[in-house]
Amino acid sequence: MGSSGFSWKLADHPKLPKGKTIAVVVLDGWGEAQPDQYNCIHIAETPAMDSLKNGAPEKWRLVRAHGTAVGLPTEDDMGNSEVGHNALGAGRIFAQGAKLVDLALASGKIYEGEGFKYISQSFESNTLHLIGLLSDGGVHSRLDQLQLLLEGASKRGAKRIRVHILTDGRDVLDGSSVGFVETLENDLAKLREKGVDARVASGGGRMYVTMDRYENDWEVVKRGWDAQVLGEAPHKFTSALEAVKKLRQEPKANDQYLPPFVIVDEQGKAVGPIVDGDAVVTLNFRADRMVMIAKSLEYEDFDKFDRVRYPKIRYAGMLQYDGELKLPSHYLVSPPEIERTSGEYLVHNGVRTFACSETVKFGHVTFFWNGNRSGYFNQEMEEYVEIPSDSGITFNVKPKMKALEIAEKTRDAILSRKFDQVRVNLPNGDMVGHTGDIEATIVACKAADDAVKMILDAIEQVGGIYVVTADHGNAEDMVKRNKSGQPLLDKSGNIQILTSHTLQPVPIAIGGPGLSPGVRFRNDVPDGGLANVAATVMNLHGFEAPSDYEPTLIEVVDN
What we know:
It is a single chain. Helices cover 30% and strands 16% of the residues. The protein is α/β, with parallel strands linked by helices. The strands form three sheets. Strands 6-7-5-4-3-8-9-10 form an eight-stranded mixed beta sheet, sandwiched between helices. It has a seven-stranded mixed beta sheet with strand order 2-15-14-1-13-11-12, sandwiched between helices. The chain has a two-stranded antiparallel sheet with strand order 16-17. Helix 6 links the parallel strand 3 and strand 4. Helix 13 (403-415) packs parallel to helix 15. The chain starts with 21 loop residues before the first strand and ends with a strand. 53% of the residues are buried.
């Protein structure tokens, strides 16, 4: 007990017993949508998930996994794995990503923070460089935040600004880059009228330049480095608008994969390489595709590619991208402080915990689940197992990924009876869904379903309970649609593939031989979201959730 009277001890649930083994299974990128030929979950053979959906109606329902339900600003904001697992683990809704940045910009708090003070030391005699995804997609970045930051920084003394743009075409429509560049160029022209030397310095497509993730391909980051820092690229233009328009005319050109370019002056000299004394901000609020560039900008000791020169800069991220690595060490907006997560409570109350996924989602069932906190709460009580993901290939090449290995490790953990909770993420629907390969995504969904079956079979053997859910949608809708829901076609009449997450709700199912009779989903939490899952799981472990948690989804009726 602290002086405030706080206690980790959870009250016993009046009707539910302790001591059952509970499997919490998160299917990544597995939403619920209309069954049609673009719904890979519907097309795939998924007998395990089908049996949950078609079983007892009071033991299967949908929950919200996007927008305000996971702390994002609007209902147009699709969910993602980071905020989804934060909500699943924390049991409460915290302002996230874009919303945190919006609040900091609106209040002006961003300009009072350590990060901004740090970079502003370069304003007097050097250049401020802004690097990030140029779109209004709202998944990794938003154009209006860049616009506000340009305005705020120039008002606070930035005299020379260079923007290094990454075109999108993944979270927004392909081809929309042209409009975004026009908007940015207009804003920069207005700044120049006010005496601020502001212009675009370089660019490239997000999937080919800078925005790789999980150390999949450092060449992507190197292409960005060469253009942004060294001012070198295969394509040189005198304006960003000309650059994007020209490069889009190449055969098979696509915003996601535009080659790197630099903007040059009349003498053919790059207008904005990054040099000693400059300040650099990476604009994206979403972390996964910023970690690698952050390492290249921050680490003096670095061997992933030849940087040629490593300028002494003041670098800050929009947010801190990796709490574990404290990367970057300077950032403009502080993360949500997520204390008292369900995992920490349960460990304090004797619940032995096993967590497992493969590399690409391992952090989600550990770090993000535990409130953006790395490591164990109590190593005696917990075991976290990471299975290495395939590297150097896109996930549609081996769409089964490591689902079987994850399921085997989880099955063994259940059958060992050493754990009260086993928590697992099956990444297939999301990682393969992102490739836009429909056939491969169908294979991926079946592989995830096979894994679910193996885990549920083990729960059956030990008399346990399962909670099967997801973190956001993806594989259930693989086509872009117009306002009335009809598939969109490109100029050649082919469907436009949707590679992004969706706004769809996700399923949650409960069951297993250990589930007490009379447990069912309540009818009075119709807008339940991912944050309601934590209290639900705590109840199934035999505990009441803390009073400030989002309400449980279940009730116990006397039969």
